Amino acid sequence: MAQVERDLRAASEDIAHQQETLNNLRRHGEDTTEAVRSIGILEHTDLVLSSLRDQLADELAALD
Fold it and tell me: How far lies 49's CA from each of 36, 39, 43, in Å?
């Protein structure tokens, strides 16, 4: 579970970094279509993995 938490934290940091990059692109008038799509995928994946982590934690707790 500790590794899962570390991975999720790293993913959240990556999403934040990508958001900064997206904001920079927008400030410079660049096309952000692909960046927006990619961030959406990252955010969705993060939600799914967080949900799976919570489910796993519940299942492990039920074993105790």
Answer: 20, 15, 10
